[in-house]
Amino acid sequence: MLDDCGRRIDYLRISITDRCNLRCVYCMPEGGVSTLRHSDILSYEEIVRLTGLLTRLGVRHLRVTGGEPMARRGCLDLVRRLHETGGVETIAMTTNALLLRGRVAEARAAGLDALNISLDTVDPATYAAMTRGGRVEDVLSVIDDAVSLGMRVKVNAVPVRGMNDHQLAALAALARDREIHVRFIELMPVGCGAGLSPVPSDEVLARMEAAFGPLAPDTSRHGFGPARYVRPEGFAGSIGVISPMSHEFCDTCNRVRLTADGYLKLCLNHQAGLDVRALLREGADDDVLLEALRAAIARKPARHGFLEEIGDREERRMNEIGG
Ligand code: SAM
Ligand code: SF4
To answer: What does the pLDDT look like over 293-310, one tens digit per residue?
Structure first.
């Protein structure tokens, strides 16, 4: 469907848990966070039902995220059930990949088309420090398994000044021999990211050019999001930047988000949305739900407004929203 700004909304990000096996510095506090109770989060039945309704409103592409989606039991069963939902064309997962080690073939068989793997550095010590405990070799093994099974793989990295900013070229070099896309996402001032220092995308691109020489724009489409891609000479894959802060892309935003506790979020930075869980658990029938979803999506905010005063700024952390 089109929202009131005329944007086609065909992409749904579904967060299935706020829990995680890591504590990335820009996402979660070191001591962990109070987690939702199991009864607070949507059941897989509720998620499948809502997704079915949203496909009737035009959603075609799904992304399962979290928290760490693989940390919720039965995550791959959910993928299989979503895959069987009529109207769904692609299903991707955003994951730190650690719990996928040895399970990529199972994920592929469940119907997962693509993986976005969060990896901020290939340096083992920096990775362990930024994630507060992760093992980088586990992530690299999942990347290679997924590539060899023909899945579309993107690596998502958040450059943070003083942490991994001097290791970005080594990470991008993963795309030299692999047909994968390594994307650098500007740190957003949300949750734990608020106190850290971002590296603007233009600076990342300048570093890539210094390391790899001239960067040809790569205009082939790699998914449904707002990344801009370049391809250095001799690279099998490409390098991307996603610049929510320095190059706002709200005009072409195509997505809505479902939080683990069943809130339909219309924009990353706004609280505006719809408490779908309340409707579901009050016993709303499909027609009532469809009308409420349609009316909410129509009101999607025009812009994220990260850099200005807005009345309903989001206060949840990224692990609660799903990125
Ligand atoms: N646990 C999974 C993972 O890490 O891929 C999925 C959830 S995580 C919240 C989704 C994405 O949000 C990750 O790629 C992470 O790097 C990103 N993220 C978390 N906090 C962020 C922030 N403050 N600014 C930009 N990206 C952030
Ligand atoms: Fe966990 Fe992902 Fe947040 Fe890292 S970014 S703490 S892996 S939810």
So the answer is: 999 999 987 777 666 666
